[in-house]
Write a structure and sequence with these properties.
Strand content: under 5%
Shape: globular
Structural class: mainly alpha
Mean pLDDT: 91
Helix content: 55-70%
Number of helices: 11
Order of helices and strands: HEEHHHHHHHHHH
Length: 284
């Protein structure tokens, strides 16, 4: 590893910690509890971005402004023992988890993909995937306000990467991955809407594009990687379901969004060995 790469790695990791801290604000403020279920049966909606991003961070319980020294990722939560300095109200445990997970996934992406322009799209996906997963776990909704802006950003980063590398076929593979992942989920939602929310279909559009982009130059590889992602998601979702129902009872609801996100990250990280084993791996 060169000196420049070391500097980039350190800078990227520090930035990822900061991004993780920002994601905690989004996760905390974006969901809006409803007084009664909406037309889709959801108990939550989402706030406009100007409300989410406006104003200083305060404790939800006592309204005490959060000091700058209490905004240090992970360390502040540990020193405060997971409680507000002003009223001792518990700070949700997702804060340190998100703040650690963001740089961990950044480092995993660098390890799996290497120092390459192809890092760009997945770096756009990581924060969105984390935010969507945690919000879905807490509220059972997949926020459109996160999914569509993230999709736009990932597509733009994909176009930039393809232009720099001169590999426009990567975009065709990305579009194929989108259709191959979101298509089956759309059909499932259409015929069995009670079994899957449409938010998961929207999420699959974002994930399918990104997965396809990392499938290389062959559309058939994107289809294969999408199928494998669905398999991973089904297994992860089953494990999560057993764990949740064991803890909360058989009637507990289990979100599918986090399983889709975890499966997508796994497929992206293992894309080369998986596709190479089928003889369809190619970057040019």
């Amino acid at each position: 590893m060169t000196g420049t790469q070391i500097v980039l790695l350190v800078f990227g990791t520090v930035t990822a910690f900061a991004v993780g801290s920002f994601l905690c604000v989004v996760i905390d403020r974006l969901p809006l509890a409803l007084n009664e279920p909406n037309e889709y049966g959801d108990l939550y909606d989402t706030r406009p971005w100007n409300e989410v991003l406006g104003g200083h961070s305060r404790c939800d319980e006592c309204g005490e402004p959060i000091r700058a020294i209490d905004k240090i990722p992970v360390l502040s939560w540990i020193l405060l023992r997971g409680r507000c300095r002003g009223c001792s109200e518990r700070i949700p445990a997702f804060h340190p988890v998100v703040e650690l997970l963001t740089p961990a996934l950044f480092l995993a992406a660098v390890w799996a993909i290497g120092w390459d322009w192809r890092l760009l799209p997945v770096l756009g996906l990581i924060p969105a995937g984390i935010a969507v997963s945690v919000i879905d776990i807490r509220t059972m909704i997949v926020p459109t306000r996160v999914v569509w802006p993230a999709f736009g950003a990932v597509v733009a980063l994909s176009v930039v990467t393809a232009a720099i590398e001169g590999e426009w076929s990567w975009l065709l593979a990305a579009a194929t991955g989108l259709a191959a992942l979101a298509g089956p989920l759309f059909v499932l939602w259409f015929f069995l809407p009670s079994g899957m929310g449409f938010g998961d279909v929207r999420l699959a559009v974002l994930l399918g594009w990104t997965i396809g982009f990392y499938a290389g130059t062959r559309p058939v590889a994107a289809v294969l990687l999408a199928v494998i992602t669905l398999f991973f998601a089904a297994v992860i979702g089953l494990v999560m379901g057993i764990a949740v129902m064991g803890a909360r009872g058989r009637k507990a609801k289990v979100p599918f969004g986090p399983a889709l996100v975890m499966a997508a990250f796994l497929s992206i990280a293992l894309a080369e060995p998986i596709l190479d084993s089928f003889g369809v791996w190619a970057l040019s």
